[in-house]
Design brief:
By secondary structure, the protein is α/β, with parallel strands linked by helices. The chain contains eleven helices and ten strands. The protein has helices at about 30-45, 75-95, 110-120, 145-150, 155-160, 170-175, 185-200, 200-215, 220-235, 240-255, 255-265, and strands at about 5-10, 15-20, 50-55, 60, 100-105, 110, 120-125, 130, 165, 180. The strands form two sheets. Strands 1-2-3-5-7-10 form a six-stranded mixed β-sheet, sandwiched between helices. A four-stranded mixed β-sheet has the order 4-6-8-9. α2 (about 75-95) packs parallel to α3 (about 110-120). It is globular, with a radius of gyration of 19 Å.
């Protein structure tokens, strides 16, 4: 397949999948997700590949799902269910993969991209990385509800109910990242780790990853993911005059202007 939105490179036993829309900060659109699915399926069927690195081109891992207006806007519950299914099916391929998958997070890692980093088995963060799930700020929700399984309850609620971002050091402290490395060493460190993982006999790697994942699935992981997708759909279908105005401003002036408009509505008045 001739990929446009991603790059796929295989060097020996290690594959590197690069999100490749740098002009859009690697925003996740339908084409990128479909290309990822194809690439992940091809790697799964290639016995020579024994580890996978996922990273982003340019200055971001990914800014999250592409919020650009669609030619045919979603108007029904089924529209949104199909939309969330496309992303969740992509991330689930990583969860189910026989391969150990390393997220090499460079720069912004927001929204759906934060979910992507969490579903990877190990996350390395450049010291310039920023993580967050800002969806609630523009009337949305995490489509792949994995954060409750990665972080504790209080930190999960803080991040998902405020939409705040955290830097790489805080991400490591709370468990969003395994460790932080200098940005110029990120891919080299990811490759060192992938080489180490690729030395494990494939049946041992596959079965041990499966066993670890199954421990979470028996505690309700998949039910949480499925219910999170439905919450996402319900939130997007809910009526909200301020969200409508937010996206009207965003469409005309950009997201930064929309957030300034939103913040100004709640700004405290100064001393009289």
């Amino acid at each position: 397949m001739d990929y446009q939105a991603i790059q796929l490179a295989i060097d020996g036993t290690i594959a590197t999948l690069t999100l490749n829309r740098p002009e859009k900060m690697n925003a996740l659109d339908d084409q990128l997700l479909l290309e990822m699915q194809h690439a992940l399926d091809s790697l799964e069927a290639n016995p020579a590949v024994r580890a996978l690195i996922v990273t982003g081109a340019g200055r971001a891992f990914s800014a999250g799902f592409d919020l650009s207006p669609r030619e045919e806007p979603f108007t029904t519950v089924q529209d949104w269910r199909e939309h969330v299914k496309l992303g969740n099916d992509t991330w689930s391929r990583i969860w189910r993969s026989r391969l150990p998958v390393i997220a090499a997070v460079n720069g912004f890692c927001l929204g759906g991209a934060c979910d992507l980093s969490m579903v990877c088995d190990i996350t390395l963060a450049a010291d310039t990385a920023q993580f967050g799930e800002p969806e609630i700020q523009f009337k949305s929700a995490p489509p792949y509800a994995i954060m409750p399984w990665v972080l504790g309850m209080k930190k999960t609620k803080e991040l998902l109910l405020t939409g705040d971002r955290v830097d790489a050091q805080e991400a490591q402290r709370i468990g969003l990242a395994n460790r932080v490395v200098p940005a110029d060493q990120l891919l080299a460190e990811a490759r060192r780790l992938a080489t180490k993982l690729s030395m494990i006999p494939p049946p041992a790697m596959q079965l041990n990853k499966m066993g670890l994942n199954r421990a979470y699935e028996m505690r309700g992981f998949q039910s949480t993911i499925d219910y999170g997708a439905e919450v996402f759909t319900l939130v997007l279908m809910a009526e909200s005059a301020e969200a409508d105005e937010f996206f009207k401003v965003a469409g005309a002036q950009g997201l930064k202007a929309a957030f300034k408009w939103r913040d100004a509505r709640f700004a405290l008045e100064g001393p009289q």
